[in-house]
Specification:
8 strands; 6 helices; binds (2E)-Hexenoyl-CoA; 2-enoyl-CoA Hydratase, Chain A, domain 1; about 35% helix; about 190 residues
């Protein structure tokens, strides 16, 4: 994946929003930094390649709760502000789960205010990823139901571990959750709305 990004940079390929890559100056080579606010989202930025590796790290199944979604949005903002960052690989620190999707406990028995705040954070996560100027790659290294699939769809490229046990898909209707309109209109059935 890093090689894919490097190759894109060498060929001068454009990102989704017309961003053109260029080689990094020698002075920045081999520089790395890491950040994580609450350790649910780990980011390792390699300035020599311009590629950031972002790992979801919320065991046991990387649930996307309000805290994790907020941390994700902040991490994306930091990377967007880093002029050296050209690409992002989004993956999981867990061995067999990319993410189990939205934490359904955030929608169960909670106040309307909390649920509103939670869904706003879900939309913000999608906006940050889908609207990113970075070249984004989802490295799906395990199960990826519901919002895990949404995250993968929001990236420019998706690569999934070659294991028949792992599944990916939008299964939220089985839980009585309707896919948000912005997901349907922008990614699933765009031709219907253009
Ligand atoms: C598209 C836009 C809308 C999106 C909607 C969604 O994302 S809707 C969501 C769509 N997502 C799904 O439908 C995911 C369904 N989950 C799965 O398919 C499996 O958990 C797995 C295959 C991801 C991992 O299998 P595994 O054998 O490695 O792990 P395990 O199964 O033993 O789980 C460990 C613990 O996590 C708990 N927990 C899990 N998920 C959720 C959740 N979403 N929430 C809360 N809790 C959840 C589980 O109950 C258990 O708790 P316990 O008993 O320890 O207190």
């Amino acid at each position: 994946m890093a090689a894919l990004l490097k190759q894109s940079a060498r060929l001068g390929l454009s990102g989704r929003h017309g961003q053109v890559f260029c080689r990094l100056p020698w002075a920045l080579s081999f520089q790395r930094y890491m950040f994580n606010a609450n350790k649910k989202i780990l980011v390792e930025m390699d300035k020599s390649t311009g590629v950031a590796l972002m790992k979801m790290a919320n065991p046991p199944v990387n649930l996307l709760n309000l805290e994790t979604l907020t941390e994700f949005a902040i991490s994306m903002e930091k990377l967007e502000l880093d002029k050296d960052c050209k690409g992002l690989i989004l993956t999981s620190s867990l061995s067999k789960v990319f993410t189990a999707g939205l934490d359904i406990m955030e929608m169960c028995g909670k106040s309307p205010e909390h649920v509103t705040e939670f869904w706003r954070a879900v939309q913000e996560m999608w906006l940050k990823l889908y609207g990113s100027n970075l070249v984004t790659i989802a490295a799906i290294n395990g199960f990826s139901p519901g919002a895990g699939c949404l995250m993968a769809l929001a990236c420019d490229y998706r690569i999934m571990a070659d294991n028949v046990k792992y599944s990916i898909g939008l299964n939220e209707t089985q839980l009585g959750i309707v896919a948000p309109f912005w997901l349907v209109t922008r990614e699933l059935r765009p031709s219907l709305f253009s």
